[in-house]
Task: inverse folding
């Protein structure tokens, strides 16, 4: 009761601000918002028409004056104004009746974020209505959300595979020992599928169709019993609508280069890990978080290529948001860490 009252009087929120999806976490309630990171607006007067799911439904379908736009690219803010409008909308929805009270916010950023990009996130969130904003790197949040005891003197490795980036980090004693971020994630896989269908089948499809293909038959490894799917789009030559049958194994082949980039990121991070922590990692394995970690057979692919067991945590897409919740529960303690260990967090 006291915690709920404190949340009403001095609200705190955690935001997993992703390239494709944004999740908002509230203490005592859990995840209160899970929406696409999309804004639809009129190009003429820049009037915002829709945010989230409503805006996503407009992707690739809008008339000339209207644009459906993702304000984040590869995990960082590409359009500050549109991002502010989106965050402001999500904050109002998450706070509900207490929207008039400015909250304290913990927000995620990619592992490879620069100090300038970090400041941009803080500025956008505070201009969107936050009293103060604290940024934490996604692998730290993902590890906390996965229940990994990061404050112990042991090494753990987390690979957070989101929409815009794959963030890999070795954590120990509450900090990041080594980290690496590569611009390969779910959106890149979607683009690769679009390119493959255009080159191999002369079929133009939108990003949402490509994402549907990835979710339905996408796999990191070829299947013994292949699966197929009908994909509809526009013929490159004739310009007329048509459909083609695509198999899971050909999609797996098309995705190999992108998945190999993820493997290299994990391998490079492991190569920079102190030997004592490396032995811990062999024992604990590689924890995979983020929505794209759910790609079929991805953990098995990593295990075979790296020689270290990889596993997908429970509800991987929510791990970063849950990690925000862990920090919110002890925000007064973490504030001192933010002041003294900002670079490592």
Result:
């Amino acid at each position: 009761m006291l915690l709920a009252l404190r949340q009403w009087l001095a609200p705190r929120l955690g935001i997993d601000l992703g390239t494709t999806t944004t999740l908002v976490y509230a203490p005592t309630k859990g995840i209160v918002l899970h929406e696409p990171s999309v804004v639809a607006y009129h190009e003429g007067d820049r009037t915002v028409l829709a945010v989230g799911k409503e805006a996503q439904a407009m992707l690739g379908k809008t008339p000339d004056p209207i644009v459906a736009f993702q304000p984040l690219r590869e995990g960082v803010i590409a359009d500050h104004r549109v991002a502010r409008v989106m965050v402001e909308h999500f904050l109002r929805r998450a706070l509900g009746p207490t929207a008039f009270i400015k909250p304290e916010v913990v927000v995620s950023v990619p592992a490879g974020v620069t100090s300038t990009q970090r400041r941009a996130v803080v500025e956008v969130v505070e201009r969107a209505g936050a009293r103060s904003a604290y940024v934490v790197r996604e692998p730290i949040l993902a590890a906390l959300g996965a229940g990994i005891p990061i404050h112990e003197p042991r090494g753990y490795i987390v690979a957070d595979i989101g929409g815009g980036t794959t963030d890999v980090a070795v954590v120990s004693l509450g900090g990041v020992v080594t980290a690496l971020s590569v611009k390969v994630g779910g959106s890149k896989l979607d683009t690769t599928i679009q390119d493959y269908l255009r080159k191999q089948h002369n079929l133009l499809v939108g990003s949402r169709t490509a994402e549907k293909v990835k979710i339905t038959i996408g796999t990191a490894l070829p299947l013994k019993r292949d699966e197929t799917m009908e994909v509809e789009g526009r013929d490159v030559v004739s310009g007329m609508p048509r459909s083609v049958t695509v198999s899971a194994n050909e999609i797996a082949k098309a995705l190999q280069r992108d998945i190999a980039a993820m493997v290299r990121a994990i391998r490079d991070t492991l190569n920079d890990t102190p030997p004592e922590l490396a032995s811990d990692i062999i024992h604990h394995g590689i924890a995979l978080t983020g929505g794209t970690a759910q790609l079929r057979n991805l953990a098995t692919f990593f295990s075979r290529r790296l020689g270290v067991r990889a596993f997908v945590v429970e509800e991987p897409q929510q791990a970063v948001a849950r990690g925000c919740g862990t920090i919110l529960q002890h925000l007064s303690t973490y504030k001192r860490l933010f002041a003294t260990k900002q670079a490592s967090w």
DSSP finds 13 helices and 18 strands in the chain. Residues 125 and 133 are 7 Å apart (CA to CA).
